[in-house]
Beta-xylanase (Penicillium argentinense), 405 residues
Amino acid sequence: MVQLSRGALALAASILPQFVNGAGLNTAAVAKGQLYFGTATDNPELTDTSYVTQLSNTDDFGQLTPGNSQKWDTIEPSQNTFSYTKGDAIANLAEANGQKLRCHNLVWHSQLPSWVSSGTWTNATLLAAMKNHITNVVTHYKGRCYAWDVVNEALNEDGSYRESIWYTTIGPAYIPIAFATAAAADPDVKLYYNDYNIEYSGSKATGAQNIVKLIQSYGAKIDGVGLQAHFIVGSTPSQSAQASTMAGYTNLGVEVAITELDIRMTLPSTDALLAQQKTDYSNTVAACLATKGCVGVTIWDWTDKYSWVPNTFSGQGAACPWDENYAKKPAYTGILTALGGTAIATTTTTTRSSTSSTSTTTSGSTATGVAQHWAQCGGSGWTGATTCVSGYTCTYFNDYYSQCL
Ligand SMILES: O[C@@H]1[C@@H](O)[C@H](O[C@@H]2CO[C@@H](O[C@@H]3CO[C@@H](O)[C@H](O)[C@H]3O)[C@H](O)[C@H]2O)OC[C@H]1O
């Protein structure tokens, strides 16, 4: 039998965590010093026992995010009436599994009940309603969330403020006030600004940096920036571009996290698209790993069966690391190897095309945003006003999303 010296054992111990044999995504991420690898989930899926078994597998998932059940329209559907049943179901599951909870979200322009979005407000009355909501919700979940996405998607593509009801009624101060209110209700929870298209440099990323500075200038607490990372296969920013953008935030003294990662494709999927998706997932996870202050990665559900993508982006899908039959795709191996884990056999099953929603297109002329990524057509909801850079068309998906394609 070979005897290892104490020095050799110490060397082996220092090397071993770099390469995690047989580990899942969360185990590998934690071995690399991250806090978690996690996934979003939603209440309707929790009746599927096979789904819940994998969702609860802490080798792969050390963190859950409720995809819908903590949004304003679910929690406060009428003024001052709070309903926590759905949010609690996911919080309880995470707790029972020993998984962290990212709480999502407090102030957003979308998924608002009509009493908010169509109410008649003054600065004072809307501020009071916003503070009441934040205080109630954050107090209810006090001590249970790792982080709250306090303000979601406050920016237009050019880095200016989105003309949401919050901005048009209260002005930019709604942002620091929201953060200060959340901090008062739970001083220990991490408070995040969360947005999309802030994963690569440009006006919108600069806008997100300015939001961090704005909150700090008010003397309010902000702990992190959430990079949603709803990407497209083959158009995902490079690892170095993502890492350098993340550093732009961490240099301001906040942490970052990838909060809603999925990488969609035009269906049907092919072996070539799945191979590119593997590379894109790998680069994104590697960027987080390479960034001091990037605490973890959350995918926006783990299986194509329950992904939001086909319902939102007509003709697109196959965005998750597991397919509709819960088989691991090449993307899974891409993530795992980026995290230092051992490659495993995966499926390359292609995904049927989706016809779940209709899309209409409109062309524009004055450009904002990055062509291959999302653009907001008309800001808060569709107005048909937006425009894309030459060669791209503004495509309407639904009242929440539109994109230059
Ligand atoms: O009919 C609605 C349905 O459209 C809604 O879909 C959800 C929309 O939000 C999705 O999450 C967001 C995706 O990207 C970022 O913009 C946000 O930060 C996320 O919150 C969610 O996954 C979809 O299920 O769900 C409710 C239905 O009534």
Notes: Residues 73 and 112 are 5 Å apart (CA to CA).
